[in-house]
């Protein structure tokens, strides 16, 4: 009688598992060998891409300088794009590119892998480059330019508001975005220097870039909502082609929302020489804070 070999269930299970595991294990091995063997190809490809990227960078920087010198808007995504290009260039500098021996397997693998990863990053950044829209819109007069914030201390000259320095310091502190005050008022009789102090506060706020936009309007004894709206629209860079107060207010409201960048950009609204109450709704703002537009009001009365 012939005895046939028996198939053991455990061995069958093990064989099935190995059939599944081996291909999975081969994936990282194949990838490792690809980085190792094609190191030169990947490095050359990265080199070509970084040249193209830096050529695009030069073009963006030249266009940015042209726009700034001609008071034209620079697209919001330009700064982030240039920052990312700088980071990629720093990564390229750290990739080993002078490997003396083909037996430096670990270094060749690391360099090949880095070249592939950086090339993918460059592709992504170049796609974003093509999406930059250079529309020739003038910079709104109220926009605070992207200058370096001042680190200088406040002036304490002998005749420079010595008697009102405490008031000035309190008002400046209230302008801080983290301060709970929504409205700051400089009140007093005419000729005591309210407007001068307001201009000083404006100067410091601008130097320290506390706000993204500083918008001004002189109110006067006879309040004219249409004239106030016109002044606000000038600094905001919004064209008001309507005649009725309510429609113009809605247009300003949309302008504030469009330029607030989801609440990131802050506005300082300066109302000088206020004799009567001013309805913020007339200039497109809510009387209550935290309604989608981050702003503070500085007024003199």
Automatic annotation (TrEMBL):
Keywords: Plant defense. GO terms for molecular function: ADP binding. Transmembrane segments: none annotated. Residues 168-301 form the NB-ARC domain. The keyword DNA-binding does not apply. Residues 140-159 are annotated as: Disordered. InterPro entries: NB-ARC, P-loop_NTPase, Plant_NBS-LRR. This is NB-ARC domain-containing protein. It comes from Lactuca virosa.
């Amino acid at each position: 009688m012939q005895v046939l070999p028996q198939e053991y269930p455990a061995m069958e299970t093990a064989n099935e598992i190995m059939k599944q595991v081996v291909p999975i294990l081969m994936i990282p091995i194949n990838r490792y060998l690809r980085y190792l063997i094609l190191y030169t190809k990947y490095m050359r490809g990265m080199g070509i891409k970084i040249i193209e990227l830096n050529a695009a960078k030069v073009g963006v920087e030249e266009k940015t300088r042209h726009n700034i010198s001609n008071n034209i808007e620079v697209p919001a995504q330009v700064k982030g794009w240039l920052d990312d290009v700088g980071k990629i260039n720093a990564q390229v500098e750290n990739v080993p590119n002078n490997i003396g021996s083909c037996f430096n397997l670990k270094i060749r693998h690391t360099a090949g892998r880095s070249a592939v990863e950086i090339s993918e990053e460059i592709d992504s950044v170049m796609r974003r480059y093509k999406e930059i829209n250079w529309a020739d819109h003038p910079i709104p007069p109220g926009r605070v330019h992207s200058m370096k914030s001042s680190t200088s201390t406040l002036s304490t000259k002998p005749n420079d508001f010595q008697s009102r320095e405490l008031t000035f310091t309190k008002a400046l502190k209230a302008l801080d975005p983290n301060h709970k005050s929504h409205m700051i008022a400089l009140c007093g009789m005419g000729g005591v220097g309210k407007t001068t102090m307001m201009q000083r506060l404006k100067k410091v706020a601008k130097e320290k870039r506390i706000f993204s936009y500083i918008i001004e309007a002189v109110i006067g004894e006879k309040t004219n909502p249409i004239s106030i709206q016109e002044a606000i629209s000038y600094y905001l860079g919004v064209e008001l082609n309507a005649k009725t107060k309510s429609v113009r207010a809605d247009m300003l409201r949309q302008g504030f929302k469009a330029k607030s960048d989801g609440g990131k950009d802050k506005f300082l609204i300066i109302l000088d020489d206020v004799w009567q109450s001013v309805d913020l709704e007339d200039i497109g703002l809510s009387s209550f804070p935290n309604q989608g537009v981050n702003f503070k009001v500085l007024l003199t009365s």
